[in-house]
Design goal:
The chain is of the alpha+beta class. The protein folds into three domains: 45 residues, Uridine Diphospho-n-acetylenolpyruvylglucosamine Reductase, domain 2; 111 residues, Uridine Diphospho-n-acetylenolpyruvylglucosamine Reductase, domain 3, CATH 3.30.465; 101 residues, Enolase-like, domain 1 (2-Layer Sandwich). The chain has twelve helices and 14 strands. A hairpin with a 2-residue loop joins β6 and β7. α5 packs antiparallel against α8, α10 packs antiparallel against α11 and α11 packs antiparallel against α12. The longest helix has 20 residues. It is globular, with a radius of gyration of 19 Å. The protein binds flavin-adenine dinucleotide (FAD).
Length: 280
């Protein structure tokens, strides 16, 4: 479908972007545009698109004073995956982000856009959720930090207010000891969203030693805290029980990508596979 007419503005600062979003017409912020433009072609009606890519410094990926990491709103996924600190301390993010789309798409799409889109099938959201990330939300009212555990609400719906820009994602400090395994099934590699995927991690600096994140099997990206706590108490001997808890936590739908029964069965199998890999 042809793209409908809209007012395109390239902001040069966050203040300018916020002012453009507060002029009483329906507007959307744009990072890579790989979700936004596709949605505007199909159904989304937007009068103004505010491009954030020309704001200087917004693509930075940098260590924070407390030893964590900040990923700027326009940092593209390829740069995140290539970054030495991300590779050393946040392997879960590298594994999940490397599975998003194809190479050309990752050169354009951003982590922040992936999170803001609010899809339960988003590949980077599950890693950021399991890593206890925070979204930095800025509006004309000021700045607030939104834990990703509170960010995802329903498909396409997040805790971000429509006039808030997510200027960055903040990750807490992590050691280099994390093991991560991302097991993902899709109809066509590089061209399709996950039908179902499971992230498992062990170690690093998380308060819980184990993390299990589920993709495309509920209205939002999920963790499985009950299974994580069981594994923390009992270790690898509880892998089967933890995978069963993960399967029972999932509330998938049937759609063109797979049936609910298939997805539930795959949550069990992929959780087992992932936990075996991170405890080996
Ligand atoms: C062919 C194809 C394959 C794909 N495959 C995958 C896949 O395998 N896995 C996957 O997870 N996704 C996939 N996607 C979806 C998409 O590419 C990703 O979600 C991507 O990360 C979106 O990033 P973006 O920078 O392009 O976001 P945009 O399209 O610019 O924005 C996405 C949404 O977030 C909002 N937004 C963006 N930045 C901000 C900000 N800073 N503050 C507030 N709101 C903001 C926009 O208004 C929009 O609603 C695919 C898309 C295509 C076209």
């Amino acid at each position: 479908m042809l793209l409908p007419h809209f007012d395109y503005r390239a902001a040069r600062s966050i203040d300018e972007a916020l002012a453009l979003a507060n002029e009483g017409i329906s507007s959307r912020f744009m990072a890579g545009g790989t979700d936004l433009i596709a949605q505007m072609r199909i159904r989304l009606k937007v009068e103004r698109v505010i491009d954030l890519k020309k704001i200087p410094g917004l693509d930075a990926i940098a260590e924070t004073d407390d030893g964590g990491l900040e990923i700027g709103a326009t940092a593209v996924i390829s740069d995140v995956c290539r970054h030495a600190l991300v590779q050393a301390r946040y392997p879960a993010l590298v594994k999940c982000a490397s599975e998003l789309g194809a190479y050309a798409l990752r050169n354009r799409a951003t982590v922040v856009g992936n999170v803001c889109n609010g899809s339960p099938a988003a590949d980077t959201s599950v890693a950021l959720l399991c890593l206890d990330a925070l979204a930095v939300a800025v509006s004309q009212r000021g700045e607030r930090l939104i834990p990703l555990s509170e960010f995802f609400i329903a498909p396409g719906k997040t805790a971000r207010a429509s006039d808030e820009i997510i200027t960055a994602i903040r990750l807490p400090a992590a050691t280099s000891g994390m093991k991560a395994s991302y097991n993902r099934l899709s109809r066509r590699r590089g061209m399709d969203l996950a039908t179902v995927a499971v992230l498992t991690t062990h170690g690093g600096n998380a308060a819980s030693k184990y993390r299990i994140g589920l993709v495309a099997v509920a209205p939002r990206t999920l963790r499985v805290p009950q299974a994580e706590a069981l594994l923390d108490r009992q270790g690898p001997s509880a892998i089967d029980e933890a995978a069963a808890i993960a399967r029972d936590t999932a509330t998938p739908i049937s759609d063109a990508r797979g049936t609910a029964d298939y997805r539930r069965a795959m949550v069990f199998a992929l959780t087992l596979r992932g936990l075996a890999a991170v405890t080996a």
